[in-house]
Design a protein that fits this description.
7-stranded mixed beta sheet, 7 strands, EC 2.1.1.33, SAM-dependent_MTases_sf, disordered N terminus, alpha/beta
Length: about 240
C-alpha cells in the first residue's frame, strides 16, 4: 500500500498511526505485579473504548487532568501523583509488567488520583479524550529511535502534537523530557512550530520540581550524559 505524504496537520494522523512509536516486548510478569493487576486492576485500569471518557465520573471529582504517555515501571508517575495530589493522572502504557509495577506503587503510596489505560496512547488520544479535557501532557524519555532511518517512529511528531494541543485547555502544557540530544532538538523544533504553543523558556526548560530524578537518569548524569526538558503552554 502506498503511504500518503506527511503533513503538519491533524489530518495526517491516520498516516502517522501506520507507524508505531513502540515495540510491544514480552516481559516477565512478577508474582507481585500479577497479583496487583488481579486485585487492583478493576479499580485503576480503564478498558480501552473508542468513546470519550467522562473524567469527572472516572475520578469522582473536578481537578486538573494530566495525560502521561509511556510511564515505564511507574516510578516517576507515582512520585508525581504523590506530590500533586490535587491533580488527576490518566496514564498510558502498553507493557504489562509496567502496569503491574505502577499498580504496586499505587498501593504502597495509597494513591487515588491515577488511572491506567493499557493501550496505544495515540488511539487513546484519538478516541477517549475530548477536546479541551486536559490541563497537561507528560512525555518522559520516549523511545528515541536513535537510528536516522527510524526517526519516523518517534512519538513527538507534528501531527500528534496537533492532536495533543486540541485536547489541552487554554493555558494547558506539554512537558517532554529526553536524554537524547538529537531527539531534544527535534522536540524543540516540533513544539516551536505549532502555532498554538508557546515555549515557557528560552530553549530548554529547567527541570520542573514535580519530575523526579530516576536512578537511570541520575546514573547518566554522573556519566556526563545530558537530560533536556521542554515545557510549552497552549496560548
Amino acid at each position: 500500500m502506498t503511504s500518503a505524504p506527511e503533513k503538519n496537520t491533524p489530518e495526517s494522523v491516520p498516516h502517522y498511526r501506520a507507524i508505531r512509536s513502540y515495540v510491544l516486548r514480552t516481559g516477565r510478569l512478577t508474582t507481585g505485579q500479577a497479583r496487583a493487576i488481579e486485585s487492583l486492576g478493576p479499580r485503576f485500569i480503564l478498558p480501552y473504548e473508542p468513546r470519550a471518557l467522562d473524567l469527572t465520573q472516572v475520578f469522582g471529582r473536578e481537578a486538573p487532568r494530566v495525560l502521561e504517555i509511556g510511564f515505564g515501571m511507574g516510578e516517576s508517575t507515582a512520585h508525581i501523583a504523590s506530590v500533586l495530589p490535587d491533580h488527576d493522572f490518566i496514564c498510558c502504557e502498553v507493557h504489562t509488567p509496567g502496569v503491574g509495577a505502577l499498580l504496586m506503587r499505587i498501593a504502597e503510596r495509597g494513591l487515588t488520583n491515577v488511572r491506567i489505560v493499557q493501550h496505544d496512547a495515540v488511539e487513546v488520544v484519538d478516541h477517549m479524550l475530548a477536546p479541551g479535557s486536559l490541563d497537561g501532557v507528560h512525555i518522559f524519555f520516549p523511545d528515541p529511535w536513535h537510528k536516522l532511518r527510524h526517526h519516523k517512529r518517534r512519538l513527538v511528531q507534528p501531527a500528534f502534537v496537533a492532536k495533543l494541543v486540541e485536547r489541552l485547555k487554554s493555558g494547558g502544557y506539554i512537558h517532554c523530557a529526553t536524554d537524547w540530544e538529537n531527539y531534544a532538538q527535534q522536540m524543540l523544533e516540533v513544539l516551536t512550530a505549532d502555532p498554538h504553543l508557546r515555549n515557557t523558556a528560552e530553549g530548554y526548560a529547567p527541570k520542573p520540581h514535580y519530575r523526579p530524578l530516576t536512578k537511570f537518569e541520575n546514573r547518566g548524569l554522573k556519566l556526563g550524559h545530558g537530560v533536556w526538558d521542554l515545557v510549552f503552554r497552549k496560548a
